[in-house]
Amino acid sequence: MEKCAQNLIYCNTIADLHSHLPDNCKVITLIDPVVEDLYSQYLPHPRIIVDASEKNKSIARTEELALELLNMGADRETFLLGVGGGIITDLTGFLASVYMRGVRFGFIPTTLLSQVDASIGGKNGVNLKGYKNILGVFRKPEFVLICKDFLKSLPEKEFKNGLSELLKTFIICDRDSFFSVVDVVERYGYDTGMLSPLVDKAANIKFSITEKDPCDRGERELLNLGHTFGHALEKISGIPHGEAVSIGIVTALSFSEKLGLISDEDADIIRKGMEICHLSTVSPVPLSSLKEAVVHDKKKSGSTIRLILPTGIGKAVVHPIEVEILEKYIYDLS
Ligand SMILES: NC(=O)c1ccc[n+]([C@@H]2O[C@H](COP(=O)([O-])OP(=O)(O)OC[C@H]3O[C@@H](n4cnc5c(N)ncnc54)[C@H](O)[C@@H]3O)[C@@H](O)[C@H]2O)c1
Question: Is there an atom of ligand 1 within 6 Å of 122 CB?
């Protein structure tokens, strides 16, 4: 077991999980049913099973869960443990932040996406009538316990979702790791063992960026690479988050090229790397159909949208752009 800074813990085997859990209070586990089915013997009781559906990331479900907690006798000393992918950790973090004005909580992320991204950084939230993550709080879990054993059972589709976020992290700030991921996938496919050190690296990067910028006011913005177009695509076409992000990264690359911020050669290397990793790079809908959703992105401030654009392999910038100009570029690139 290796402990990094305050609360990111890498646990080598699933059998070791219990040794990192709090033993001085009542722990209630909110768990994804698929994970409960596969790994029941390693995880603590009592449990509340919550399906990983975006519909469950809601105020209505939060209320139901709070009632369940009350019925189970949960008080201000209770510790909530979220075990599952990003849906379960987002919901657990939100519930723990509002139940009795806030109780202690921690996460065991079980998808690649949640291990390198969703569980780290203290953003907890629920959706509002189809608008994602509109209600939420910044509050850090006491720990994020990362165990790569969980990834062995992850369906390929879910693995790809996480791989988009993993590559995104390296595209913005770690050139060597970008090439390492592409090399591993090209030679060994989605081998969780071979990718393991790179998962740790991506989790560490997200952790240290969010430590420096806990409330998303500076460097953390770079982690939104691919998300302005990705969120719009997710909303319009209903494709999964990670797939939308990989297409969003490729769209951001096209903008970067158009603005002369990245060389065509670097942009091609990134695109090729994503293809080698079998990530989606082509939008199922025309770019022009995303215009409305993009200009209403929550990252908008006044008449400006802050696009995150790669400027090289391992480098990116925040590029504020007037909505009018963005609309024209969307039209040009469509
Ligand atoms: N808070 C943040 O900073 C942040 C960042 C990125 C994404 N998110 C949120 O994360 C959510 C997506 O998370 P996700 O991609 O982890 O998806 P998810 O929680 O929906 O899980 C995906 C699927 O994987 C299954 N699963 C989970 N662990 C498994 C395992 N070990 N083996 C087999 N199957 C397993 C689940 O049952 C589910 O069907 C979205 O709601 C998104 O908004 C939050």
Answer: no
> What residue's CA is closest to ligand 1, atom 9?
86
CATH number for the region 156-333 comes to 1.20.1090.10
* Ligand 1 centroid to residue 93 C-alpha, Å: 14
Q: Residue 289: its pLDDT value, please?
A: 85
Give the mean pLDDT per block of 10 residues along the chain (334 residues): 66 92 95 98 97 96 98 98 98 98 98 97 93 92 96 96 97 98 98 96 96 85 93 88 93 94 97 97 88 72 86 96 84 76
Choosing from 55, 94, 95, 114 the residue with most ligand 1 atoms within 8 A of its CB, the one to mutate for a pocket test is 114
How many Cα atoms within 13 Å fall on the side-chain side of residue 231?
19
The CATH code that applies to domain 2-153 is 3.40.50.1970
Q: Say how many Å lie between the CA of residue 114 and the centre of ligand 1.
A: 6
d(CA 267, CA 273): 10
**Domains of the chain: which residue ranges?**
2-153, 156-333
Q: Residue 164 C-alpha to ligand 1 middle, in angstroms?
A: 13
**Shortest-distance Cα residue to atom 36 of ligand 1:** 52
Q: Is 150 in the pocket of ligand 1 (CB under 6 A)?
A: yes
Distance CA 327, CA 317 (A): 20
Terminal Cα-to-Cα distance of the chain (whole angstroms): 49
CA angle 26, 28, 32 (to 5 degrees): 160
**Strand ranges of the sheet holding 144-146, from the earlier edge strand across to the other edge:** 2-4, 8-10, 144-146, 104-109, 79-84, 27-31, 47-49
Among protein residues, the one whose CA lies closest to atom 38 of ligand 1: 52
- Measure the CA–CA gap between 144 and 109, rounded to whole angstroms: 7
